[in-house]
Amino acid sequence: MRLQKTRILPLIEASFVTFLWSSSYVLIRIGLKEINPLAFAAYRYFLASLILLLPFYLQFRKNKISRFNLRQIGVFLILGFTGFFIAQGFQFLGLFFLNSVTVTFILNLTPLFVLGLSILFLNEWPSKVQLIGIIMTLFGVIIFFYDALADFGTAVGVLITLVSGIGWAFYIILSRHCLSKDNESVITLTSIAMIFGAFMLLGTTGLTGNLVNVSLNGWMIILWLSIVNTAIAFFLWNHALKTLKAIEQAILQNSMLIQISLMAFFFLQEPISEYNILGMIIVFSGVLVAQLRTKKEGNTKIS
Description:
Blueprint: H1 8-31, H2 37-61, H3 70-97, H4 100-107, H5 110-122, H6 128-144, H7 155-180, H8 186-207, H9 216-241, H10 246-253, H11 256-267, H12 274-290, H13 295-298
Helix pairs in contact: 1-9, 1-11, 2-3, 2-8, 2-9, 3-7, 3-8, 4-7, 4-11, 5-7, 5-10, 6-12, 8-9
């Protein structure tokens, strides 16, 4: 078994993104004390999409990006709906109803959705070694949250977060298809899908009367999340998705529970139990195993 050199940079990119997204949980929990979840998500992704439109416009002016056809527009609309309106918008709602521990636990079921969709739509089957890594990771998630399952008291919050995970799984699968098989531009896919999703969030926020004024501290959080944890992070995530399989990145994303727990411990004073520590070790090991492939499997092209 070996780790291909061509996969090192994508793995570094995706791992760095998981760190940024893990820090988002802490910032979102702080921001939700002041900003309602719909407005929070809408402001964040609308600003981030405007930032991403600048490099898109520059590439378009240099004729590096061709004009869209109706099929592309339809795909970008679906990506905006699943990846931002559903996945991100519902995640904010989930964090409003549930604590970060419970939300993270539910979202760590996303690889199961991605695995099924990858087999169904992309014909991407995990190797035997990767399957072991997936099982290890999910087992670690169960152990990690063994003493936190009592937090499942709010059925609405659980349902909302599950929908968020399913939306994110669809986004990863469709993005993987567009980037690897249709050879879609990373900046085009990221920016246009996000602007569509942002307008959906903003429109829903306005129609439901949830547009609110935000303090200076609130805007500082929103700006950081928009520029670093969204615009830069989504570009790097989708760039890595050109090389890595959808299920590989979904499994790598599971490592966020370790990062979130440590950040919550230091910044939100949330305790870490012995189950958490044991779960961290198993999940970390599972994530590493899931990234390994045999030489034969590593050279197999996606059909």
